[in-house]
Design brief:
This protein folds into 2 domains: 30-109, Ubiquitin-like (UB roll), CATH 3.10.20; 125-257, Cytidine Deaminase, domain 2 (3-Layer(aba) Sandwich), CATH 3.40.140. It has 6 helices and 13 strands. The chain is globular. With 260 residues, it is an alpha/beta fold. 25% of the residues lie in helices and 33% in strands. A hairpin with a 4-residue loop joins strand 8 and strand 9 (158-164). Helix 4 (167-181) packs parallel to helix 5 and helix 5 (198-207) runs parallel beside helix 6. The longest helix is centred in the C-terminal third of the chain and has 15 residues, at 167-181. The strands form 3 sheets. Strands 9-8-10-11-12-13 form a 6-stranded mixed sheet, with helices on both faces. It has a 5-stranded mixed sheet with strand order 5-6-3-4-7, with helices on one face. It has helices at 51-61, 125-136, 139-144, 167-181, 198-207, 220-229, and strands at 6-15, 18-27, 30-36, 39-46, 71-77, 80-85, 96-98, 148-153, 158-164, 189-192, 211-214, 232-238, 241-246.
Length: 260
């Protein structure tokens, strides 16, 4: 296992219509097989760092564990990750494959079966703007242009942030970190560099995270899920502006527009 996230590769570069040999830094994409209690449940293409956090977050948001203590052992050897849990886990369907293109791999989603997000967390909009800038301050993204960044913050502090070729993997990673270090996820907010999809919303809802925010857009299904569960979704945080698509009562100054 390595924490190296990029390598330099040769290329032919054009500058002002002139081609010349050069090199460029690209992000690393690595395959891993995840085994739980002797059964392979997942093939994942991900960045090769903080794999323990990723595994804990993935197992938690997929409902395979209820808490970190459910994991008796977690071993990583080359491209294989093996987990033993203290009890049986309900593994639905066959082996999944999660690619790095951020498409996710969740089965058909019944919104009515999702839990309700009940946190009373309220965020200062000025801190949301500042925190997102801190999350997006990524030298690796500047150098490669090929990485997503996801951060987890409290009402006044940065908890952790991570980079990955897939934003879903990065979200699992910060959730896993919070679980392993004892943070109360109901008092946190997720900040991301990319689009808020239904899969990103689903993971936050199942983890009990009350707010997800991005500098980019969101999808209609993500908003539908948020409206049904009480998740706060915020998009287009940039230039002193933001769009709150669901549960605005968790943003100071916007509570008057909450209809719930």
């Amino acid at each position: 296992m390595t924490d190296q996230l990029s390598i330099t590769v040769p290329c032919v570069k054009e500058i002002d219509h002139v081609f010349s040999p050069s090199d460029h830094e690209v992000v690393i994409e690595s395959p891993y097989a995840l085994w739980v209690n002797g059964r392979q449940i997942l093939n994942v293409m991900t960045s090769p760092s903080r794999l323990e956090d990723f595994v804990v977050g993935y197992l938690y948001t997929e409902g395979l564990i209820k808490q970190v203590d459910d994991i008796e052992s977690l071993q990583i050897e080359k491209q294989t990750i093996r987990v033993l849990t203290s009890g049986k886990v309900a593994i639905r369907g066959g082996k999944k494959t999660i690619l790095s293109g951020c498409g996710g791999d969740s089965s058909f989603l019944d919104i009515k079966k999702l839990p309700t997000v009940t946190s009373g967390l309220v965020m200062d909009p000025a801190w949301l703007h500042q925190a997102l800038k801190l999350v997006l301050d990524s030298d690796l993204h500047v150098r490669t242009g090929g990485i997503h960044v996801v951060g987890l913050v409290s009402s006044d502090a940065m908890i952790t942030k991570t980079e990955d070729i897939g934003r879903h993997n990065a979200l699992d990673r910060v959730i896993g970190y919070a679980l392993r270090t004892g943070w109360d996820l109901s008092r946190t907010c997720v900040l991301i560099s990319g689009r808020i999809s239904s899969e990103m919303s689903r993971k936050c809802i199942l983890a009990g995270i009350p707010i997800i925010a991005s500098r980019g857009a969101t999808t209609s299904l993500a908003i539908e899920m948020a409206e049904a569960t009480g998740l706060t979704i915020i998009g287009f945080i940039r230039g002193g502006k933001m769009n709150i698509y669901a549960s605005p009562h968790r943003v100071a100054g916007a509570q008057a527009f909450h209809s719930g």
